[in-house]
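Known limitations

Files may contain more than one protein. Parsers should not assume a single record per file. Below, a two-record file is shown to illustrate correct handling: read the sequence, read the token line, then continue until end of file.
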Amino acid sequence: MTGKQRAYLRSLANGIDAKYQIGKDGIDEETIKMVDLALEANELIKIKVLENSWLSVRECSDEICEATGAYPVQCIGNKFVIYRGSEKNKTIRIPK
């Protein structure tokens, strides 16, 4: 993913709220399934890492992206944004 594409996705992510949270339990199989379904439905999601989590924001982002096949878009503060194109519900057109 190019910098221009990532910047476009970051601009889209400004308008969305964090729908999921990662807390002290970390990332388990249920979290991965939930994020996977959310990516298929929305393509671009924002996730918040709570202060009591044992993992850093970057670690959470990397682990979830690896498990779901998503691309990391942005890590800022205690939130991160990831993207994965949907096969059935394609709504976001990324510039080339």
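...continuing to the second record:
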Amino acid sequence: MQLEIITPEKKVYSGKVNVVQVPGTKGLFEVLEYHAPIISTLEKGRVKIVEGSAESFFHIDGGVIEVKNNRVIILAESIKG
């Protein structure tokens, strides 16, 4: 699936991934390929990205995630990678 992580300043990440784990308002949740459409708010915490066998992490200060048509967009207030 395609993932984009965007802050008000710039696009931080863009690429194909297998799994995205985010800090939702009610706890951590994962998005896999062909996930049902969803929009959710995000809390301050860690975003985990899995590309094949490689893992990447970003720390966000909250935001919003949208999942639709095998595409994930994370709009983060600010980010540390």
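Parsers that stop after the first record will miss the second one. For reference, the second record is described as follows. The mean pLDDT is 96.
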